[in-house]
Amino acid sequence: MMAAPVESVCKPSAERSPFSATSFQKKSRSKLISIPGTRPSVQNGQLLVSTGVTSLDFLLGGGLAVGTVLLIEEDRYDSYSRMILKYFLAEGVVCRHELFVAAAQDNPDDILQELPAPILDDVAIHKPAEQPRLPCETHDSLDSMMIAWRYQNLPKVQSALASSSRFGHYYDVSKTMEPEIRQAAKCHRFYLPEHPTESSTTRSPVLKSYSALLRSLQEVIHREGFDVAASMSKSRNILRIGLHSLGSALWDDDLSCHDNPTHRHSLTAFLYGLRALLRSSLSVAVVTVPSHLIQDRALMGSITRLCDNAIALESFKGSERETNPLYKDFHGLLHVRQVPHLNCLANQLPDHKDLAFKLKRKQFSIERLHLPPDLSETVSRVSRGELAGGATVASACGSGTSGNKHLDF
């Protein structure tokens, strides 16, 4: 039975109470927080920010959720992990988010001066237009002769990781951000040599350096109004936190120096406090850790589980893969250690586990790792020669052992 119209149910306007119309209000959705540079996730409704690398956003399920921690296991030379951290901070500058940069080796001002410059969308996604081919051209026929018949009808591998909806900006790593743009963003700095720690006789599970860093973070979050429970009188914003090379000896941590370190649980205790602090604030953090220097893999597993997202970068620099022609198009491998499971019972795993990254002339990108068949003529001729030589040796062995049914190696 259909409901009657509102006019036939309600009394005439002269007799009904001014509050009687409230019984027939349309149910509206709860208003989400509107902050520039953010968007809600289509999977769980969590507020997302971009990491600055569009392919990494796609890998993390659309972006980095506010209130979470992204752990980056550094490559051996700290080249690409530092670059992703600079992408993350540059995206915050462009979106007018506030920054918090902490480091022990380099001054945070030096890191901010190396931020990549933003570029236009049409430059980033520009693709050359395909020229119409004439029927008389023989280029296609030559290509078809080079490719085996069983590969001709296979679809091309889509190696790029990209989403249909645009989120984030593009950057040119060959140029640095202009000082006018960089200085327009509000940045909080924590440089460990400028925060001397006093020695204490009391035993604490957290190092003095990590305690000072956590107190500085807490002061900034409370003072600048990034608490979720803060008053809504002023416009809200996002605090992007970048913590460089935690767990190294520069933070007075012996985690990467000994097999049985004295401050074994210092970094895990700090990450536990950091995640609790982010859960109640409009903040998001990216932490880099030199995992290749940590000998205890069980402890490294605990560090990974204390973070919501975790990826590891394996650079080809200095290894045999650097000169291997199979990996000539890439600069390293990317391993997904952990993906977030927020507001849901099961997490969304990436559909492709073989991932690699490469640094082009201007951009850093993550792609699916696929090795195409080697169809060069040189390889074909060499393989034929090896097969012919192998057949000759096999026939000689067979004639020399005509009385034997099999050979024992």
Explain this structure to me?
The chain is of the alpha/beta class and 409 residues long. The protein is 28% helix and 17% strand. It has twelve helices and 14 strands. The strands form three sheets. It has a nine-stranded mixed β-sheet, with helices on both faces. A three-stranded antiparallel β-sheet has the order 1-2-3, with no helix packed on it. The chain has a two-stranded antiparallel sheet with strand order 6-7. Helix 10 links the parallel strand 9 (239-243) and strand 10. Helix 9 (208-223) packs parallel to helix 10 (266-279). The N and C termini lie far apart (86 Å). Residues 4-21, 122-144, 379-384, 390-395 and 400-409 have low confidence and may be disordered.
Radius of gyration: 29 Å
> Helix count?
12
**Category from helices, strands and their pairing:** alpha/beta
Uncertain residue ranges: 4-21, 122-144, 379-384, 390-395, 400-409
- N/C terminus separation: 86 Å
Share of residues in strands: 15-25%
**How is the main sheet built?**
9 strands, mixed
- Shape estimate: globular
Helix content: 25-40%
DSSP strand count: 14
The average pLDDT value, as a whole number, equals 78
Strand order in space, largest sheet: 8-5-9-10-4-11-12-13-14
What is the H-and-E element order? HEEHEEHEHEHHHEHEHEHEHEEEEH
Topology:
Layout: H1 6-9, E1 38-40, E2 47-49, H2 54-59, E3 64-65, E4 69-73, H3 80-94, E5 98-103, H4 108-113, E6 116-119, H5 121-124, H6 139-146, H7 149-152, E7 170-176, H8 179-183, E8 187-191, H9 208-223, E9 239-243, H10 266-279, E10 283-289, H11 297-305, E11 309-315, E12 332-338, E13 355-359, E14 364-368, H12 377-400
Parallel strand pairs: 4-10, 4-11, 5-8, 5-9, 9-10
Antiparallel strand pairs: 1-2, 2-3, 6-7, 11-12, 12-13, 13-14
